[in-house]
Design brief:
Low-confidence stretches: 138-143
Radius of gyration: 16 Å
Order of helices and strands: HHHHHH
Distance between the termini: 25 Å
Mean pLDDT: 81
Number of strands: 0
Length: about 150
C-alpha cells in the first residue's frame, strides 16, 4: 500500500523542504509493480522464512531477530522508493548497498515506529518522508542525490 501513496508523500516533502532542488519523478506504475513484487515481496518472504526457526527455538531473543529483519526490509524498501525517484532501479539498489549501514539504521527507526500501536498506521507517511530527507539532504548541484 505504501507505494500507492509514496510519490504523493515524496512530492510534498520535496516541495516543502527542498524547493530549490529539482523534483523527482515517479516510477511508471508497471515498473513500480515489478520492483515491488520482484524485490520486496520475494525478499521479505525469504528473510522471514529464515527467521522463522528462531521464533520456535530462540525464545526471548526471537522478537529481536524479527525486529532486525523488519528494520532491514523497511529500510531497504523505503530507501529504494525514495532513491528511484532520481535514479534508475539498478542505480538505486547500488546506492542502497553503498550506504547499507545507514539505510539499516534508518530502517530501525521505521521499525520502531511500526511497532507502536495505532501510530503504525502512518508508517508509509513516516517511512517515505524520512527516506526522502535522507536522499535529498541538499547535496548541492551535480552531487550524488542519495548523499545520506
Amino acid at each position: 500500500m505504501a507505494s500507492f501513496f509514496a510519490d504523493d508523500i515524496a512530492v510534498e516533502v520535496e516541495r516543502s523542504h527542498y524547493p530549490a532542488d529539482p523534483p523527482g519523478t515517479a516510477l511508471p506504475f508497471g515498473r513500480a509493480l515489478i520492483e515491488g513484487v520482484q524485490d520486496r515481496a520475494a525478499g521479505g518472504r525469504g528473510l522471514y522464512l529464515v527467521a522463522l526457526p528462531f521464533l520456535l527455538f530462540a525464545g526471548v531473543s526471537a522478537p529481536i531477530i524479527f525486529f532486525v529483519a523488519t528494520a532491514y526490509l523497511l529500510g531497504r524498501e523505503y530507501f529504494e522508493l525514495a532513491a528511484m525517484r532520481f535514479h534508475p532501479p539498478a542505480e538505486a539498489k547500488r546506492l542502497r548497498k553503498t550506504h547499507q549501514s545507514t539505510v539499516f539504521l534508518a530502517g530501525m527507526f521505521i521499525a520502531a515506529f511500526v511497532s507502536i500501536p495505532i501510530l503504525n498506521l502512518a508508517t508509509p507517511l513516516f517511512g517515505v518522508a524520512f527516506m526522502v530527507h535522507m536522499t535529498s539532504a541538499s547535496p548541492g548541484p551535480g552531487a550524488d542525490r542519495a548523499c545520506i
